Amino acid sequence: MEKKYWKGVEELRNDAEFVRLKNDEFYEPLPIDELINKKAEDITVTPRRDFLKFLGFSVAAASLAACEAPVRKTIPYVIRPEQITPGIANYYASTYFDGYDYASLVVKTREGRPIKVEGNTLSSISKGRINARVQASVLSLYDNVRLRGPLMSGNAASWADVDKAIGEKLTAIAAKGGKIRILSSTVISPSTLRVIGDFSKKYPTTKHIQYDAISLSAMRQSNLDSFGVNGIPSYMFNKANVIVGIESDFLVNWISPIEYAAQYAETRKLDGGKKAMSRHIQLEAAMSVTGSNADVRIGVKPSQQGSAVVALYNAIASKSGASAISGGIEGELAVKIEKAAEELLANKGKSLVVCGINDIATQNIVNAINVMLDSYGNTIDLTTTCNLRQGNDAELAAFTDEMNKGEVSALLVYNCNPAYTLPDAKAFTDGMKRTELTVSFSDRPDETSLLCQFVCPDHHSLESWNDAEPKKGFYSISQPTISPLFNTRQFQETLLAWAGTPTLFHDYMKAGWSSMLPVGLSWEKFLQDGVLENTGTAAGKFTSSASLTAPAGGEKAGFELVIYEKVGLGNGLQANNPWLQELPDPISKITWDNYLAVSPKRCS
Fold it and tell me: Which of 77-86, 121-130, 481-490, 550-559 is the least confident region?
């Protein structure tokens, strides 16, 4: 007998009111009048279910109806802005990059308010595609917890007072040669890097340190060791006949998933006269979206992964005339890896191995595998490097040590929350206590900004000017689609003010681009298209020069814990976004909660 599920006890009892309303979208009437008539301070106690049904986020988004102006009645324009026609949407090219996800966008606005984002089809990187995190980001513009203005010692302050106080402290620190550190997530904006450079000229003891909550520092270091290139290559999944993924969820999370998913889809469709699909083999511990799409998924415990990579290398090396590495793996897993190696070798020059393990020795071996498979120059381009995930674990560790020794005088934290995301957050927060000046540019209270003496909230990306270079020679631009809702100020303008050259970041950025734009391309055309790309660089061949050693560790007995990135939340930057919290996980179908996935056999 088919199971029947009730929406609630009202349906079970078949109440008369339920019968009347059962065809409505919501059984319970929406408390719209009650919400609108409440005072702002009372809205926070509104039941979550009510306000999510009403708006889908916080009722601060009531600013959707008026933005900055405190309009209480509907009135026509006295003088209508030329570019706005009531009821007709406008579209603006822009860019999304939060230090984690990148996409070139087209932002849909209505009456001067952004309401939806879609992909920019002119971008050869994102190819008109975005993911759930980018789609949901428009909601964070109207988040009720965003800071309304700057804070000094936890209290509201004016920008003039904050600038004066911080300027005096920076001048005093620079005069005595104190170290100034800017800690940020990955920055891919050429103009922002120029601003940091100008700030560093004013304060020569400044150093910029980048880190990623989900680090791939080992890959960059391995490429430096192997090829002399401190970068992440451009992977071309659309040119590979055989793909082997090792603990890399490249369809939804790993490095540039929007780009990779589009490439991957090209080889998995039998259209346009194609008669063969690419072959995909995935080695991983927990089931991922990428693993669920693979032709062959091989379960590998975390403690086995290093040995599995060695086994794959040895299987290919034995047929390529290369020396073997001590170690490897035995049993059924070894047989499966041997078959994967045979498929890779049968498609030499059209195969690709990618690995998401943040370990230098492992990445060195993967590089050597791809060299033997002749992947560089065919399915891997290390001349057109990817600028995402620039975090450096060694620099971060040295910086944390500097702070704890009391050697850092000023800390400026931009677009990251190290007090929450660092594995050893306590060492970082202990170091902050020894720092004379601490400033956060977070647009909302978070674990790090709450510990800082000053908070200088940045604009939301939809309120900001910016640019991006996600790949070498590939540019995109961001432009504001709404006036700032609160008394925030763009990070770049704040640094320029403290450097003694206060100016609008738009003017600064436009002046910089005046010498970079190709002949015949105007600034206005760049804004309209949103992208500027140079695809003339040819992928080069590379030979690995790194010494190969087996990764540390080995197979262990007992339970092993696997912690992974959720598809909706990624690195957790938008953890308070209900659209993403209520997005069912593609594998488990669970929303909202954290959970532990354990085999039923283990529970018996």
Answer: 77-86
Domain range holding 348?
Answer: 233-388+548-604
Provide the domain count of the chain: 1
Q: Average of pLDDT values for 322-346?
A: 91
Q: 162: how many CB neighbours lie within 10 A of its CB?
A: 22
Please report whether residue 2 resides in a domain. Answer: no
Q: Please give the structure tokens belonging to residue 360.
A: 């230098």
3-state DSSP call for residue 321?
coil
Contact of 191 with 509, CB cutoff 8 Å: yes
Name the token pair of 227. 């090829």
Predicted local confidence at residue 66, as pLDDT: 39
CATH, residue 585: 3.40.228
Q: Is the pLDDT of residue 576 over 80?
A: yes
Whether residue 409 lies inside any domain: the answer is no
Q: How many CB atoms lie within 10 A of CB 82?
A: 6
pLDDT grade for 550, boundaries at 50, 70 and 90: confident
From CA 435, how far away is CA 448, in angstroms rounded?
14
Question: Considering the domain boundaries, does residue 258 fall inside one?
Answer: yes
pTM of the model: 0.84
Tokens of 147: 């800071």
| Residue listed under structure tokens 């990764």 | 551
What is the pLDDT, as a whole number, of residue 493?
97
Does residue 558 fall inside a structural domain? yes
DSSP secondary structure letters along 403-463: HHTT-EEEEEEES--HHHHSTTHHHHHHHHTT-SEEEE--SS--TTGGGSSEE-PPPPGGG
Q: How confident is the model at residue 130 (pLDDT cuts 50, 70, 90)?
A: very high
**E-state strands within 247-379:** 279-284, 296-299, 351-355
Mean pLDDT of the chain: 87
**Residue linked to tokens 């702070």:** 403
Strands (E), 472-555: 474-478, 531-533
Whose CA is closest to 476, among 535, 533, 534, 531? 531
Q: Which of 376, 344, 366, 359 is nearest to 543 (CA)?
A: 376
Tokens 């059962």 appear where? 22
Q: Which residues partner with 116 through β-bridges? A: 108
Task: Tell me if 384 sits within 8 A of 539, measured CB to CB.
Answer: yes
